[in-house]
User: Which sequence fits this backbone?
């Protein structure tokens, strides 16, 4: 049983509920139909505003944890930072990189590493196509619920606040954080100081609807962290969008910020090559057509070709493996389709990438100029 500030980390008695199909059910009652005006149970009221898919289990389309023995350099750097952050001056970490660079996979792995070391971790994974977690509305309730699960003593502090103000989840994001997260943590810290830092992890900030909401979320949390009233460290993960760069560049945040860009310093290419080699090896052992696959397939030069085309983005390599490993089709022929050596027909090897980049281009303000730049780049390469 984990301990934080001398408090046992078990679920509070009132948490007699389960999650079914991404919906909260308590005593046989689905909590989706909820009236904020007539609640008597603060904890039940809290549950009705939680986004279970933002923290509990992997949904379709979510990134898994990092492939074994990959991304070790960045994972080691981040978990070392978590362990030492409260003794230094950098209490916020910003993991940033291009779409498909593996940020969410790294974030999920960091959560696992923190839990192994018995840190309290409250996390929220935004996902742009999931309406239950693509906005800021459920963030505070979800984080508060996770904190209560890990630190049950917070239940007696947070739920009375909700009971006395049942419309609290209609308040501004800043007010919700202050009433239900920051003040309860400060009160508990005064009564029983935390033995280890608490970790907040907010993944996919750029997938939250509304640039202003993204900025407000970062600034609200950063303002409290900067006060250094409790041992709290925060990890944000996102693409390096211009408005987010400006937010993290503000002096009050930059002074306590550790930046972790997913660039060549973290050897993505070698990790991608390892992932490809092991994945192809597994295909040759397990695939129904394994007897028809040559021992030398794929050649080292072919693996290097895919690694180079990945350009440090794990999503390309993972999409290739997903397409090639289809159990009903011949892996060698599937890889030839990926390489453009065989017609695809009705198959869509890069459907996931197409969807991702359609979304990226839909956010571009001056699409004509960007298209022209890309056209020029294509003709000069």
Assistant:
């Amino acid at each position: 049983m984990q301990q934080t500030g001398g408090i046992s980390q078990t679920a509070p008695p009132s948490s007699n509920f389960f999650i079914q199909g991404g919906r909260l059910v308590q005593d046989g009652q689905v909590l989706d139909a909820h009236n904020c005006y007539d609640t008597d149970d603060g904890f039940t009221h809290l549950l009705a505003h939680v986004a279970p898919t933002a923290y509990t289990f992997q949904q379709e389309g979510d990134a898994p944890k990092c492939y074994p023995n990959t991304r070790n350099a960045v994972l080691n750097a981040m978990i070392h930072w978590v362990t030492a952050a409260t003794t230094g001056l950098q209490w916020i970490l910003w993991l940033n990189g291009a779409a498909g660079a593996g940020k969410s996979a790294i974030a999920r792995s960091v959560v696992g590493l923190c839990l192994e070391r018995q840190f309290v971790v409250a996390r929220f994974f935004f996902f742009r196509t999931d309406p239950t977690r693509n906005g800021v509305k459920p963030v505070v309730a979800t984080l508060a619920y996770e904190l209560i699960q890990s630190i049950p003593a917070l239940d007696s502090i947070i739920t009375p606040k909700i009971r006395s103000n049942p419309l609290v989840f209609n308040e501004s994001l800043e007010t919700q954080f202050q009433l239900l997260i920051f003040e309860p943590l400060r009160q508990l810290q005064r009564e029983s100081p935390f033995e280890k830092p608490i970790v907040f992890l907010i993944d996919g900030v750029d997938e939250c609807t509304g640039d202003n909401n993204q900025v407000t979320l970062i600034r609200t949390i950063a303002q409290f962290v900067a006060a250094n009233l409790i041992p709290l460290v925060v990890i944000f993960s996102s693409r390096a969008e211009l408005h987010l760069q400006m937010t993290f560049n503000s002096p009050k945040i930059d002074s306590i910020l550790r930046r972790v860009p997913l660039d060549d310093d973290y050897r993505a290419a070698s990790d991608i090559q390892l992932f490809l080699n092991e994945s192809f090896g597994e295909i040759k052992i397990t695939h129904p057509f394994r007897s028809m696959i040559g021992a030398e397939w794929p050649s080292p030069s072919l693996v290097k070709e895919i690694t180079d085309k990945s350009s440090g983005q794990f999503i390309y390599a993972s999409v290739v493996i997903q397409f090639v490993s289809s159990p009903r089709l011949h892996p060698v022929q599937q890889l030839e389709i990926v390489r453009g050596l065989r017609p695809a027909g009705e198959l869509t090897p890069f459907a996931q990438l197409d969807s991702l980049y359609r979304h990226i281009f839909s956010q571009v303000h001056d699409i004509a100029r960007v298209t022209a730049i890309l056209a020029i780049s294509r003709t000069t390469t």
About this structure: Residues 1-15, 18-22 have pLDDT under 50 and may be disordered.
